[in-house]
Amino acid sequence: MDIIMVPGFWLDASSWSEVTPPLVAAGHRVHPLTMPGLEAIDAPKSGIGLRDHIEAVVEAVDAVGRPVVLVGHSGGGAIIHGAVDARPERVVRAVYVDSGPLGEGGVINDELPVQGDAVPLPPWELFENEDLVDLNEDLRAAFRSRAIPEPKDVTSDKQHLHDVRRYDVPATIIACEFPSSLLAEWIESGHPFVAELARINDVEFVDLPTGHWPQFTKPLELGEAILAAVDRTV
């Protein structure tokens, strides 16, 4: 299976490097992506928005030329959902890593502090305690040293979706910060945060208790969780 992997904010393709070995060892073909504007710290950010990131994933799907699994971490979840909407016939599963599908008109996070055309990685004090579980001082230093400012329009552009066939693409939610039982409660109560997720016809939940960046705090476990989701698909 071809697995296209989209990182969250401030990260490039290399952020998946400790996650992919179990997938490769199992014979799958991995395609970690670097999104437009994140090629380097000083890469131009102006004019790059959410739709540009979605289109980059769609281009990768088309380039593979076979059915694919999409994996998206954090803000990458919104991006892969846009690609599912664009190519529902080509995506056999969407895996959301501590993230979920973003519905029509939603934004990923328009409250992050902006500097010029970009959103740099904020100080740790601006994150919730749940975000930072298992992210020790060494991991925080390594993350900050590799962090690339995110194009600001990606964080605040509205999601636009067009094809209801996206709801027929199976989804896996790898729940890290909050247990899947809480997500199930939100769905049951009609919480708007999970409104789009609630419309997907086939959703499985996998718990991987840690903070918001399991690719750093529990990379092997994350790789194995993604592998299990892929194996249930093929």
UniProtKB/TrEMBL annotation:
Keywords: Hydrolase. Residues 3-221 form the AB hydrolase-1 domain. Pfam families: Abhydrolase_6. It comes from the Bacteria. GO terms for molecular function: hydrolase activity. This is Alpha/beta hydrolase. It comes from Arthrobacter terricola.
